[in-house]
Amino acid sequence: MKMFSKAAALGTTAILCGLVGTTGALAQVETITVTSQKREQTLQEVPIAVSVVQAETLENAQIVDAIDLQSVVPSLRVSQLERSSNATFIIRGQGNGANNPGIEPSVAVYIDGVFRSRAGTALSDLMGIERVEVLRGPQSTLFGKNATAGVVSIITEEPQFDFGGQAEITLGNYNSIITRGSVTGPISDTVAFSLSGSMNQRDGYFTNTGTGGDFNNRDRWALRGQLLWVPNDEFSLRLIADYDEIDENCCGTDRVVDGAAGGVIRDLLGGQTSGSGFTYEIATDFENQNTIENSGISAQADWSFGDTMTLSSITSFRGYEDYIDYEGDFTTLELLSSNVRGLDVDTFSQEFRLTGELGDRGFFLLGAYFSTEDMTVEDSRQYGADTRDYVDILTASGVIQVAPGVFVPDPSTSAITGIEVASGFAPGTFFASGNGTAFTAEQSDEQFQIFGQVDFNLTDRLVLTGGLAYFQSDKEVDFLNVTRTNPFSDLNLVAIGEPLILAGLIGANPLFTGTDPTDPLQIGAFALANPAVFAQLQALATGASTAFPGSGAPITNPLLGLFAAGLQPLGALTPFPNSVEDGRTSDSDWPYTVRLAFDATDRTNVYASFSRGFKASSWNLTPDTRPASADIAALRASGELASDNALGAPTVVTTAEALGVAGNQRFARPEVTETFEIGFKTRFDFGSLDVAYFDQTVTDFQSSVFQGAGFAVINAGEQSATGLEFDSVLYPPAFDGLTINLSGIWMDAQYDDFQGAPVVSGSPEDLADGVQDGTGDLSGSDVAGIPSFAGSFGVQYARDVSFGELMFRADWQYESEVRLLDNLPENITRQVSTINASVGVNFNNGLEALLWARNLNEDEYYTSGFPTTLQSGSFSAYPNQPRTYGLTLRSRF
C-alpha cells in the first residue's frame, strides 16, 4: 500500500506538470535517442523502464568501467567478488553468475549490439562511449539469451567524416595513471575510421601482511578500431575490432567473523588471517594472479529499402581467456597449494533484423538470432603442506602441555588419525599435501531464436505492442577428464559412527552388556532382540540427539561434526556423460511482451505491460557438481557412481548420500521471469519524470552460492518482488545552468518457495531437518541483498566565464540497510551512503581539467561475502573501494 501511495503521489505530480506546463517548446529538456527496442527512438517515446547515461555524465562523474555505473543507476548493482573478472550484474534485485563458469547471468550485456556471454568480457575501461542504456525487467523477446532481469547496452561512438579526437591523462592517489586517446576522420568520401585506446594502472588499496605487496590494483589496457563505409544513402557497413587485457591481483577480503579456526591458525600454527573493520589488510602466502584476454570482431550492415524498411545484419566472432591462480584459504598457511582455474570461450553470433513501417498504422520488427559457444574449463584444487596439521588440531580430543600452564590440542588424538587406523589407511593419507581434485570440462552451447514485435496505432494516441519470440538452446557438457586423490571426502561417517556410539554405551547401559560393537553378528543379534532400541540407534547415527531407554544420556554420532564443519569438501565426483546422465539439456520457450501505451498529452505517456523472460539451463562446472538425487540409485546399480576409485572401489556411499542431502547440484533448470509493469513518462518546461511500478515473479531462479567448502547450485522455486522506480531530471528556471538528477527504487522481495536453500551452517533454518549441512527452507523470507530503498541524488552546475566554462558536479548514492547474503549471519549487513564529486573547467582552447573524488566521504560497506574457506564459523566479506581522487586533463581537437 505504501508503494501504491508513492506511485499515486508521483504520478499525480508528473501528470499535473505535463498538463499545466506551458505549451511552448521544451528548450532546456534534452532529447535523448535510445535503441532499447532495436530501433532509434527518443527516451520519451519508449514505453519501457530504461535509464540512459550519456557520455558527458561518464566523463564528469569519472565513471571508468561498468562497475561504476551503479552510482548513477540505482536499479543496477554490480558486485565484484574474488577475481577481477567475476562481476555479477543485478537489476531490480535479480542477477546471478558468481564464480561458477556454467551459471550464466540473468542480465545480458551488449556492446554495439553484440552479446557478451561472460561478465569479464565487458569490464574493460569505458572509452569512446556515446551512451549506456540500462533496460529494466525481462527483455527476452528482443534480446533473447540471459535477459530475464534486464539488459545493459553499451553504445560506442561511430567513426566521423570530420577529423577530430581527444587525448587525456588522469593522475590519482594509489599512484593511479589512466591514459586515453582517440582519433577519427575520413579515409575517403565514403569511408571513415576511428581508433581509440586506454591504459589504466594503479597500486592496490589492500596491503598483504603476509608476503608483502598489494591487492586490488589496476593493470589493464584496451584498443578498439572501427571502419564505417557509407557508399550511398541506402547502405552502411560498420566494422569493429577490439582487444583488451587485464593482469591484476584481486580481490581483498575483510574477516568479519572470526570463528574458532582463526585461533588455531594464528596461535597454534603461527599463521596470519585477514584484518577486520575495513583495515584493508589481507594475509596470504602468495599473490593472486588473474589474467584476462578478450578480443573480437563484428560487422553491422544496414540496407534501406525506400523510406520505410531497413534490413540489418550483425555478425560477431569473439574470444575470451580467463586464468586465475587464487589463494583461496585466506591465510598465510598453505591450506590450499593449488586453486587454479582457466576458462577459454569462443563465440560466434549472427543476427538479422527487418524493420519497417505499416503505413500510418504502426511499425514492425522481425528478426532471427543464432549463436554457438564452445567453452573449456581447466580446474585444480589441492591441499597444501599445512592442511593435515590444521585438521589434526581441529579434530583433536586431547591436549598436551607445551609450557607451564600452557596446553594445546594433541594431534595424536585427532579423529582423522583414528579414522585412518580404523579404515585401514596409512597415517597421513587424509588431507595429504597435493591431494585434491582436477578436471577438464567442455561445454558447447547452440542458441537459436526468431522474434518479432509490432507497434499498432489503435488511435493517434493509443499504441498496442505485441512481441513474441521462439527460443531454443541446446547444451552439451563433457565432464570426463577427472583426477581425484581425496579419500576422506568419500567416507560414510554415518556408518563409521554407528559402532562408535555402541562402544560408548557399553558399560554405561545394561541393555548393551556383553555386546561387542565391532562384531556384526552380535550387533545383529541385539537388533533382533531389541528392535525398537536399535531403530532409535540408527536414527541417532544420522545426527539426532535423544536418550536411550534406561540411560538418560544424550547420544549423537560424534563424527558428524566433521561433516558439519565442512571437512569433506571436493567430494566424490562422478564423471559424465555416463549410462544414466547424457550431459545434455535442450530448452525451448516462447518469451513475449504485451504492452498498451497512451499519449495522455503531447508531453505525457502512460503505459502498461506484461512480459515473460526465459533463461536456459545452466550447468554446475565446479568440483561440486553432483548427480541429481533421482539418478543416484541408477548410477550405483551401474557401478558408475564416484568411479574415480578414491577408496580403491568403483562405488562408495558418502556421508552426504547417507544423510539424504546428496545430489541436485548437476545443473539448474531454466529460469522464467514474468513482470507486470505500469508507468508513465512526462516532460515539462523545466525537466522530466519517469515512474514505473512493477510486480515481478521469478520461477526457478538459478542460485549458485559458495558455502565455504563448495558451491551449492539449486533452483529457488519462486521469488516475487514489487517495486516502484522513478527517474527525474530538473532544470530549475531560477538557476540557469543547474541540473538536478533524482532517481530511486523502493522494492520488497521475498522467497515464496525456496527449499534446500543455502543458509548459515548451524542456524535454525539449517537444523530444522535434523542435519547440519548448510541448507534449509527460506520460503516466506525476505531476499537478502535487496534494500527496501536505493536512490541517487545528483546536482551539476555549469557557468560560462570569459575563458570557457566552469562545472561542479556531486552525487549521493544511498541504499537502506539490508542483510548482505542469505548464507551469512543476519548482523552482516550492507548500507550505502556515498558521495562523489568533481570540479572542472573547460577552456575555450579545447583543454579541459577535472578534479574529482569518488567515495569522498569514505563510506564503508560490503559488496558481497561468503563463509570462509575450510574455516567453519568464520565469515569473510569484500569491502567497497575506499576514497579515490585525482586530476584529469583532456584535450579535444
Low-confidence stretches: 1-28, 541-553
Shape: globular
Give the structural class: mainly beta
Range of strand content: over 45%
Q: From the alpha carbons, calculate the radius of gyration and give it in angstroms.
A: 30 Å
Report the CATH C-level class of the largest domain. Mainly Beta
Distance between the amino and carboxyl termini: 55 Å
Characterize the main sheet.
22 strands, antiparallel, barrel
> Number of domains in the coordinates?
2
| Helical content class | 10-25%
- CATH-defined topology of the largest domain: Maltoporin, Chain A
CATH superfamily of the largest domain: TonB-dependent receptor, beta-barrel domain
Q: Figure out the total of helices.
A: 13
Overall CATH architecture of the largest domain? Beta Barrel
* Overall pLDDT confidence: 85
Give the number of DSSP strands.
Answer: 46
Verbal overview:
This protein folds into two domains: 2-385 and 433-491 and 568-892, TonB-dependent receptor, beta-barrel domain (Maltoporin, Chain A); 493-558, no CATH class. Helix content is 12%, strand content 48%. The chain has a 22-stranded antiparallel barrel. A five-stranded mixed β-sheet has the order 3-8-9-6-7. Strands 14-13-18 form a three-stranded mixed β-sheet, with no helix packed on it. α8 packs across α9. The radius of gyration is 30 Å and the shape is globular. The model is unreliable at 1-28 and 541-553 (pLDDT under 50).
